[in-house]
Every structure is written in C-alpha cells, then in structure tokens.
Amino acid sequence: MNISIVGAGYVGLVTGVSLAEIGHNVVCIDTNKEKIEMLKIFKSPIYEPELEELISKNVKEGRLSFTHSYEEGFNNSNVIFIAVGTPSKENGKADLSAIENVASHISNFIKSNVIVVIKSTVPVGTNEYIKELLDKTNNSRFTIDIVSNPEFLREGSAINDIFNGDRIIIGAENNKASRVVEELYKPFNIPIFTTSIRSAEMIKYASNAFLATKISFINEISNLCEKLGANIDDVAIGMGKDKRIGNSFLNAGIGYGGSCFPKDTSALVQIAGNVDHNFMLLKSVIEVNKKQQMSLIEKAKKRFTSLKDLKIALLGLSFKPNTDDIRDAASIVISEELLNLGATVTAYDPVATKQAKKILNKNIYFTDSIEDAIKKANCVFILTEWEEIKKFDLSKLTELMIEPIVFDGRNCFTINQVSAHIIEYHSMGKESVINLN
Ligand SMILES: NC(=O)c1ccc[n+]([C@@H]2O[C@H](COP(=O)([O-])OP(=O)(O)OC[C@H]3O[C@@H](n4cnc5c(N)ncnc54)[C@H](O)[C@@H]3O)[C@@H](O)[C@H]2O)c1
C-alpha cells in the first residue's frame, strides 16, 4: 500500500519506519526541514533504540522516503496518517492547529480516493470535526474517508511496542475504510479492535488517564509507607501478584512526566468539563503528581534546612530512560526550584543533554559523565532510572562527593545494595539508610 505519514516525530517516524519494514511504501512528511535533511542522510532526529538502523535499511531497500513537501508526499498516496503534535494550550485544552493545518492541504494534492487516519491523540469529536473540514475544503474529485487510530507506543521502546503491541484500535466511519486499515496492519499480527470513532478517541484518553491514576495511587501508598515503616517495593510486589491489579505501573517515584500523560490528563479534565462533568478523580491524580515531583526537594530541605549554596547533582534528565525526550520531565521543575532556592546545579544524562540544554535553565552545568556531575557535590538527586545510573559504582560517591548523600527519586537501588556502602540514602517509600561512618 502507498502510505503518507504527516509528522515525523516520535509517533510518525516510528510508525512510518515500521510500516515500511512490513512491506508498505511509505513517505514521511514533516514541515521541519532540518529533520527531513537529517533523515535523508539516515540520521534519526530523535533517540529511539533500533530506529536509525531501520531507517537506513528501509530507505536503502526503496520503501521509505522523506520530504517536507505535501505535494510530493501526497502524490501517490492511498492512506494518509496524521501524527503531528497536539500539545496542551495554556488552559489545558488540546491544541489542534497542526492537525487543522495538515487537513487544509490534503485535497489540493491527492491523486486518488484516500483514507485519512488520525493517529495523534485528539479529544472526542475531533475526527468528526476534521472530516467536516476536509469535506468543506475538498476541491478534488476524490473521496476522503476518516479513521481514528490512536497510538499506544512508549518512547524508549517504541519499535518493540509497534511490533508487539497489545492491541490496535480502529474507529471508522464506514466498514470499507476500516477494512483497508485493518488489512494494512495485518502483518503485525496484533489483535485489532474495531469500534466507533468516538469510542476509539476515548480509549486513548481513558488508557492514559488510568495509567496516570495507577502511578499517582502507588505514589500516595509510597508516601504512606515512609510514614508507617513499610517498604513500597515489597508492597508493590505483593499487590501485583493479584491478577486483577497486575504488576506493571506500580513503581513509586517522583511522578509521571513526558509529552503524553500530563497533557492527556489535563485534556480529559477539559473534555469532561465541556459536558458538565467534574472529573474529580483525575483532578486529584494531577495534583498528586505535581506534589510528588517536588518530593525530593522536600526531603532535601528537611535534611539540610537550607539548600542555598549547596552543590546538587542531577542524574538523569529525560522523563524516562532510553529516550532523549525532555518534554514535561520532572527535571525541568526540580532544577528550576533548586536554582530558585540558591543551589548550584550540575546535571548529567546519557542521551538527553542536547535536548535538555534547549529547555532547562542556562545556569545549570551540564557534564559528560556521572563522575564530573557528582564531584564535590553536597548531594545527588536521581531523576531517571537509566541503566548507567543503576549500575554506577556507589563507592565512587564516597570518593568524589563532599558527603555521599543521595535522594533517589526512582528507587534505582535496593536497601541491601546501599547498606554495603558509606552513604546516606533516601529513596521513595522506604526507610532511609544512614551509614556515613
Ligand atoms: N510520544 C509518544 O510517546 C506518543 C505516544 C502515543 C501518542 N502520541 C500522540 O501522537 C501525537 C504526536 O506525538 P509525538 O510525540 O510524535 O510528537 P512530535 O512533536 O515528536 O512530532 C510531531 C511532528 O509533527 C511535525 N509537524 C507539526 N506540524 C506539522 C504540519 N503541519 N505538517 C507536517 N508536519 C508537522 C513536527 O515538526 C514534528 O516533527 C500527539 O498527539 C501525541 O499525543 C504520542
């Protein structure tokens, strides 16, 4: 099938590459010329395991190409995926301007009937609204059908997720369009669930809101564990053994971040508000998360009284491991608050430093190694559970820091691991280890 993907970001690029890998002819369109130029020389503009290898393989085998021109991109297309961003506006609503922009170009350049598949996360009713826009502006002799096909991949394991996803959701306005999209996905051999367009749109928000709820829930339990002398690791294992609960998404920490959960939870609160529904549970989930992001700072303030003039090393800046994505990462609000409190901040991340330099405060000292970040530091904040951080030799903390004091926001180490070292270790939902002599 000839497929165009509009938006070569985390979702669009991974989708395009994967559809090419299963044999489709794919052209990825992006208005960001710099991205397109990089892709043309087989360089991925984002960090995602396995992605660069698959880009160069599929381009060389003639199934994948890149352009910034809609005319070139839509020329041969039977199916157009829209995977542009839908960020939050100031008021929490989803900003649909990029999708509207793409929709306004479609009929000008198509050369046959097409199916437009909206992969971006959009509020319930958006597909119908875009369909109206498409019909209104359709000056071609071709028909344009619309299909909602929300995406569930996770950054950091996106390629694996596309090939081994739990489900593919297809919400279509008619059976013909649905069948074409089902057919296109068949080689992945993943269960397909077909439904109405509105239900498909809702499945995406409900899924993200539920996962965010699970995270805020376990974080509240973790805060209680600290006060009551229980161990959150054991509590989570014990809970997860119940099949009705399951053991995923029960890691206590400094809350969720990234480009999806914060914006999608806010958008769902807005969507509910539009139909006079006060989504109280989700509002609390968001509040708990905001508070949780500040929990390491609260612990450090208790320990040191004042953070003024302390040197604090941040380890991990991306919102989760194996990605360079900094959007809505806890590192943004934590570093800002530490600087406000008068601390000196050093920071290290294995791959996200380039992105972090664009977004984080200019007064942060970025380093090229953990060792350089922690040298002569008064304490360390662990913000992302990168393998490199989890494997770090803790005896180096004693060697290099003024005092080896760690606030671990991702529970990278067990109490047994740290107990063998000269260290003061504060983590989430567990007793602190104070072993400085
Ligand atoms: N990132 C994720 O993990 C993830 C997972 C599931 C769903 N989603 C959803 O998928 C959508 C895309 O997210 P993303 O993280 O891939 O975003 P992204 O910011 O990484 O990528 C969006 C791309 O679209 C391009 N673009 C913007 N306007 C354009 C236009 N008019 N024409 C052509 N290209 C244009 C941008 O240059 C950018 O490269 C969002 O709605 C998001 O909520 C994201």
Automatic annotation (TrEMBL):
The annotated pathway is: Nucleotide-sugar biosynthesis; UDP-alpha-D-glucuronate biosynthesis; UDP-alpha-D-glucuronate from UDP-alpha-D-glucose: step 1/1
Q: Which Pfam families match?
A: UDPG_MGDP_dh, UDPG_MGDP_dh_C, UDPG_MGDP_dh_N
By its UniProt entry, which Gene3D superfamilies does this protein fall under? Cytochrome c1, transmembrane anchor, C-terminal (1.20.5.100), NAD(P)-binding Rossmann-like Domain (3.40.50.720)
- What InterPro entries does this protein's entry cite? 6-PGluconate_DH-like_C_sf, NAD(P)-bd_dom_sf, UDP-Glc/GDP-Man, UDP-Glc/GDP-Man_DH_C, UDP-Glc/GDP-Man_DH_C_sf, UDP-Glc/GDP-Man_DH_dimer, UDP-Glc/GDP-Man_DH_N, UDPglc_DH_bac
The UDP-glucose/GDP-mannose dehydrogenase C-terminal domain covers: 313-415
One BP term from GO:
UDP-glucuronate biosynthetic process
Sites where the protein binds NAD(+): D30, K35, T86, T121, E155, K263, R327
Q: Which UniProt keywords apply?
A: NAD, Oxidoreductase
Annotated binding of substrate, by residue: F152, L153, R154, E155, K204, F249, L250, N251, A252, G253, G257, K320
Q: What class of enzyme is it?
A: oxidoreductase
Q: Which domain of life is it from?
A: Bacteria
A GO term, aspect molecular function: UDP-glucose 6-dehydrogenase activity
Q: Which residues form the active site?
A: C260 (nucleophile)
The reaction(s) annotated as catalysed by this protein in its Swiss-Prot or TrEMBL entry are:
UDP-alpha-D-glucose + 2 NAD(+) + H2O = UDP-alpha-D-glucuronate + 2 NADH + 3 H(+)
EC number(s) reported in the record:
1.1.1.22
The UniProt family comment states: Belongs to the UDP-glucose/GDP-mannose dehydrogenase family.
Annotated protein name in UniProt: UDP-glucose 6-dehydrogenase
Q: Organism, per UniProt?
A: Cohnella lupini
